[in-house]
Design goal:
Oligomer: homodimer
Radius of gyration of chain A: 23 Å
Helix content of chain A: 25-40%
Number of helices of chain A: 15
CATH architecture of the largest domain in chain A: Beta Barrel
Shape of chain A: globular
């Protein structure tokens, strides 16, 4: 059987004795940099557990060779897990990180610049005394593949990675803990609004509470604020979810279908929340920055027919008014991740020729950015992420703060 | 937000107060027949519960209009649920069935012959005293969409439909029960082999047991036998699954991740089994029909490199022997469903120019059959399904029995 799609692939490689590492590939992971063949970064803590012999601090740049199958691209090669450790044993050395390397060049999907921004899944099949540890990998090519992976392992926050199974005993502590601020957002039942104890709060309520819980950072620029809040909200939602789900799942189920339906509803609620909350965070930021809802922007107003872009500037009424100057209208779509789905926004508001798209996806490939530019889409990303983009594109990117200034200017003095 | 993919769509339409009806569209559903605009068949038992006013036995062909959104194809129209009931109140009348109708013509995806063979999902949003019952529908365009639907509602057996949630109180009894033979395949623990009580049996063991449990039909032709066994195996597996899973899920879970992982493993095991078991059923049939494994056929032998077609005839050794005449080689791929994935088989055995494909998918569109013919693929389907195919293609189809004769002839007298 030829393996060609990710559903079949997951069926084959999700099993006991396997460890998944899931990340979004960065430009650094995929591009040739500093004159040597780079490859994806994987944290030491994980690689040392997968390949204990790699942990040779007194040896310069120790490496271990193993087989890696890139099943999404029907490719196989021997690659190396390498520990660049000259910081430890060379005077003036600066590196102390582990990567996979030896992919051969840009004909490998892992070194293809178009793979930047894609979710990559590494399934390490742990060896025994007889067999070698090896790895099967998949680089997602479509948004729907990324959904399937995130349904499987959980939502991938910006600049984070996921190890799965998360409760694999040997893997605890491999990934960084949430920030102190985010940890404080995990609430006990006594800290939750009473109505939340009766039923799940709406995403809007969760976002509102997030703002309250992060008041300590209310002085940060909008771009930092929104990222910190996304992290906070993730923990806050996790606490609400556990409050509601744990009693049910601890109590058990009477039949298989109610068990499976409950699991589906959890997975689905996570996905819906992840998709919806970013828009609501953006709305909070607009309000905090002094934009007035209904006067300066409108959330989910109709443009044409049944189409409702996330934000219209200044309002749906102005948009519907043919006398309102077209060049003073703006539209912002908000998407946690972009992949192929960014094209959805192109027909969301016919009168706005230049559409803006805000995303917190930490990396987008050069090719995709170029496609967006050609489609007259203005990309808005958090300031801290701009450095991750290729220098030639940085000038074309707006921060959230830039975008807010942009709509203020469009609409002129009040 | 424009809805363009099925994951987003399911998130939006899977909720309380909604009833799903999932079927594979037949040629009858999609094609203009008998001079009037047809539309998908939906059983009376379901439509009468969704639209109680449709149940007017004394009125001729009663109908109820409602809104149907075909979200996969960005289409909306007012359609009718109609009860063709002339059998009840017209002398000589022969019809007594309910359908949806009023789609307007073949520009609707529901009347497009290319939709035949696709899984269609109808989500009925139940009305109240103030609101009308309406429907959102999705016609799957790719195999991966069908996987996502089947993960959600369960595996769709040939010529069956699924109502979900299956335990929706008002929906019990809407769909036909399994046959008596299949019901006997649901085993109690005392009827299972002792080793099955310790751990899940392999798919091969389940198929072997299925053969034993269906000995009463061992005299049926191969084509009927395999379909009856697929139904039996479904019930048999369900009994094994409940034996293993119920104690765990009744007992409950300590944390969310172990709960979700368990649910994933159930869904995944179902999918793997559904994909694998048909090959093993075919193997049993070959053996019963007197083909000898290793002499007449080989299961999962290597062709080239890592490629392993489901069946090579007469054997992998003959295939690897350049002196063995190419025209005496054959290959059979086995797939429960075909959709876009049938093309996988085209490069599974280079020396076999005409590939055969056995499927129990009950309907395949004319376009897809034509594509298969052009790719020199011989389609093998159970005899009872041949009538469902367009007359112009029936001559080109082989039954399983035909195919067995074909390979006997290829290989000449023993």
């Amino acid at each position: 059987m030829a393996v060609i799609d990710i559903v079949e692939w997951i069926d084959r490689w999700a099993g006991p004795g396997q460890v998944w590492y899931v990340k979004r590939l960065s430009h650094n992971d995929t591009q040739k940099t500093r004159g040597h063949q780079a490859g994806p970064y994987i944290p030491k803590e994980l690689l040392f557990r997968l390949f204990p012999n790699l942990n040779q601090p007194t040896q310069k740049n120790p490496r271990i060779e193993f087989s890696l199958y890139i099943d999404s691209h029907a490719d196989h090669r021997r690659v190396q897990a390498i520990w660049y450790n000259n910081k430890l044993n060379t005077s003036g050395g600066t590196r102390n990180e582990t990567r996979l390397t030896g992919f051969g060049g840009s004909e490998s999907a892992f070194l293809d610049p178009d793979s930047a921004g894609s979710i990559a899944v590494f399934v390490f099949c742990l060896g025994s005394s007889q067999t070698e540890t090896h790895c099967h990998a998949w680089i997602c090519r479509h948004g729907i593949e990324e959904d399937i992976v995130e349904d499987y392992v959980g939502v991938l926050l910006p600049k984070r990675a996921i190890v799965w199974p998360s409760h694999h005993p040997s893997m605890s502590g491999v990934l960084p803990q949430p920030t102190t601020l985010a940890q404080r957002c995990y609430l006990g039942p006594e800290e939750m609004p009473p109505s939340w104890l009766k039923h799940y709060p709406s995403t809007r309520e969760v976002v509102g509470k997030t703002v309250e819980l992060t008041s300590v950072i209310s002085g940060l620029p909008p771009d930092n604020r929104i990222l910190r809040r996304v992290e906070c909200e993730f923990e806050l939602f996790r606490s609400v979810e556990e409050f509601h789900e744990l009693p049910v799942i601890v109590g058990g189920f009477q039949n298989l279908e109610s068990f499976l339906d409950r699991a589906k509803s959890v997975t689905q609620r996570r996905r819906v929340r992840a998709g919806l909350s970013l828009e609501l965070h953006a709305r909070e930021i607009f309000l905090e920055e002094g934009l007035v809802e209904g006067r300066d922007f409108e959330y989910q107003a109709y443009s044409e027919g049944r189409k409702r872009p996330d934000f219209l500037f200044p309002s749906g009424t102005a948009y519907a008014n043919d006398a309102y100057p077209q060049q003073s209208l703006a539209m912002l779509a908000v998407k946690r991740t972009t992949k192929d789905r960014w094209r959805q926004i192109l027909n969301e508001a016919d009168r706005v020729t230049r559409k803006h798209l805000f995303t917190i996806q930490d990396t987008i490939s050069e090719t995709q950015i170029r496609e967006m530019i050609n489609a007259n889409v203005g990309l808005v990303v958090p300031r801290s992420m701009i450095d991750a983009y290729p220098p030639s594109f940085r000038d074309g990117l707006l921060t959230l703060e830039d975008f807010i200034s942009h709509v203020r200017v469009l609409q002129g003095p009040k």
